[in-house]
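Our preliminary data section would be incomplete without showing what the modeling component actually yields. Below, a chain of 151 amino acids is followed by its predicted structure, encoded as tokens that our downstream tools consume directly.
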Amino acid sequence: MGKKGRIKVEKEFDEKKVIDKYLSMINILINNSEAGKSPLWNWVFMLACVVVALFSLSSGEIVINPVLAFDWSDKLLHFLIFAILCYTGLKVFYPKIFRLCLGLLLLGAIIEVAQIYRDSRHAELGDFIANLFGIILGVVIFKIHNRRFFG
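Predicted structure:
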């Protein structure tokens, strides 16, 4: 096989642009929700999203204690992180469950696509699926918590 017919793909990625874009999306969602009743949760949720995006797109690998590492520990981490993000987000966007879940799915998709352009990272469908199930768990826990303590 010769070089003829090959397509060169440029792998340029600006982390700052992606983070700024996502922060503006979060800000729009917060301003269009009933989030004014709990400003602390607004900041906790926003900070959590930024931290997840930064760690997901960082150059370094996350080192897991060898005792805790197993074949699918990465998927479990995605699952738990998105469950926590969803629960925290529901504290802010409670009546807008669908919008929040869609926004978190979008965050997970953006992160996975952005990882294609990082040499030290790789995108996996399994990570996105783990994010989806984490979001579902976050909604279930929030609903159980609200029913038990608030109604």
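Residues 15-57+71-150 form one domain. Confidence is low (pLDDT under 50) at residues 5-10. Preliminary results of this kind motivate Aim 1 of the renewal.
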